[in-house]
Design goal:
Length: 289
């Protein structure tokens, strides 16, 4: 294959297993069906070696070049990313605090002509993801800082238990740590109708081990995840190598922009778009965060 003229998808993705440009093919239908079964049963699905092994080093290098732009701010948080002094009942899980010690490279530091930038906006990729999530279409976030970001977890640090604002998330590991940095999650621990504070509290307090699933992701693995309803975290990274993962955030509805407080917490800054959207959030439920 002449990669100088081949489309991005053909260069990057293992199209024998994941033929994104051929939605009528048996392999496309098989991949979509498997993801849907995984999401229905476990709230999470992993497509191993989604990115060709020959491009893993390109991905790693690209993430490493972006990582210095990550915003670091070790702070005390709760699983809902709401103020830790919010007026909540004494036994509410929002009163259980943790230290957030990961960092994010904002979307405006991800070059549009990068591998990750091209993949995020690729129509074939978006159509495949929409089918996997059983949606007619998905939309890139209107947020100028979120949408496509790089999550950086340095050795000795972690990303504590939390829920996502988006209904679903798509991640791609670009650099694995030497050890640690495992992805732990509690599939469907809450729903749009039920916060299930009892089980959430149990997990946050170190119990509820039967509710926790663990994944060890590898570079090139694509993860599809219902993070809005599944409590999840990245365990402490060990060794001398950062853990880098690209987060491709989409929404079933157009116009999604993060709140001022959440955006400032994650990126250390807000833009006029966030200020203009404050109080007019596009949301599909009334969950706490």
């Amino acid at each position: 294959m002449d990669t100088s003229v081949a489309p991005l998808i053909e260069q990057l993705v293992d199209t024998d297993r994941y033929p994104l440009a051929r939605p009528d093919s048996p392999a496309w239908a098989e991949a979509v069906d498997r993801v849907r079964r995984d999401l229905d049963g476990q709230g999470c699905s992993v497509l191993p070696n989604f990115v060709r092994s020959s491009r893993h080093e390109d991905l790693r290098r690209e993430g490493a070049e972006m990582a210095p732009h990550a915003h670091y701010d070790v702070e005390t948080v709760n699983a809902y990313n709401i103020p830790t002094d919010a007026p909540l009942p004494a036994d509410h899980p929002g009163r259980i605090t943790m230290r957030r010690r990961n960092a994010f490279v904002a979307r405006d530091h991800v070059p549009p002509d990068s591998i990750l930038g091209g993949l995020y906006s690729d129509g074939h990729f978006q159509r495949f993801l929409a089918a996997c999530f059983d949606l007619p279409e998905i939309h890139e976030l209107a947020d100028p800082l979120a949408g496509l970001v790089l999550n950086v977890v340095r050795p000795g640090m972690d990303h504590p238990w939390h829920f996502d604002t988006n209904e679903f998330a798509v991640t791609l590991l670009t650099q694995a740590p030497e050890s640690g940095g495992e992805f732990e999650y509690c599939p469907g621990i809450r729903s749009a109708e039920d916060e299930n504070f009892a089980d959430v509290s149990a997990v946050l307090r170190g119990g509820g081990t039967d509710l926790v699933h663990t994944l060890t992701l590898r570079p090139g693995d694509l993860q599809l995840f219902r993070g809005r309803f599944s409590l999840h975290r990245v365990t402490p990274v060990e060794g001398n190598t950062d853990r880098h993962s690209a987060i491709f955030a989409y929404s079933a509805r157009p116009g999604v922009i993060g709140s001022v407080s959440r955006t400032r917490q994650i990126f250390g800054r807000v833009l006029p778009e966030h200020l203009a959207a404050e109080g007019h959030a596009v949301r599909g439920d009334q969950l706490l965060d």
